[in-house]
């Protein structure tokens, strides 16, 4: 009977260590904290991470927000990237402002080139850039053909942002 209790205690101790490791990861990686506070199930084993890439010409608005939402909605189960075929070099201040409304700091992102992206992806999503986006190896490809919100008023910009969030959530659920 004593041995059985020690076995139960050992199993409980293992579970406590797993939870503690997850909590330490959250403390050390603030970007994970936001995602897991919104959805505690976002803590998943690191071995099953899905790789997703969001592409638009400038990598300044839509693809940046999509990358952010993939990190928010996917948590540690997703490796999210964004890039542009002709990156502008900056993230649009409106994108930064409207993501800040949701508690996400997009100012930490940078506009990146597709030339800097390597490897295969579970999904590559173009944001309506058509032929400007070169081929990138992926198990799944989608073109969302979203309007570029760069010159939109605040309400229209938020509508595009919220549409991107919904589409990212659906994409991740289907992978």
TrEMBL record:
UniProt entry keywords in alphabetical sequence: Arsenical resistance
Q: Tell me which Gene Ontology terms the entry assigns under biological process.
A: response to arsenic-containing substance
One Pfam family of this protein, by short name?
LMWPc
The chain positions of domain Phosphotyrosine protein phosphatase I read 50-174
Q: Name the domain of life.
A: Bacteria
PANTHER family in the cross-refs: ARSENATE REDUCTASE
Protein name (record): Phosphotyrosine protein phosphatase I domain-containing protein
Organism annotation? Arenimonas composti TR7-09 = DSM 18010
């Amino acid at each position: 009977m004593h041995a059985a209790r020690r076995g139960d205690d050992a199993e409980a101790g293992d579970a406590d260590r797993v939870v503690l490791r997850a909590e330490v990861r959250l403390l050390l990686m603030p970007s994970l904290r936001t995602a897991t506070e919104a959805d505690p199930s976002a803590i998943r084993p690191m071995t099953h991470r899905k790789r997703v890439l969001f592409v638009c010409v400038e990598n300044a608005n839509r693809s940046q927000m999509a990358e952010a939402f993939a990190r928010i909605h996917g948590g540690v189960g997703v490796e999210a990237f964004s890039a542009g075929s002709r990156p502008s070099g900056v993230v649009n201040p409106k994108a930064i402002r409207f993501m800040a409304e949701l508690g996400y700091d997009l100012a930490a992102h940078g506009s990146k080139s597709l030339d800097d992206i390597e490897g295969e992806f579970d999904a590559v999503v173009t944001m309506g850039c058509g032929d400007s986006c070169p081929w990138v190896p992926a198990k799944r490809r989608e073109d969302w053909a979203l309007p570029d919100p760069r010159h939109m008023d605040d309400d229209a910009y938020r509508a595009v942002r919220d549409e991107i969030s919904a589409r990212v959530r659906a994409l991740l659920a289907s992978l």
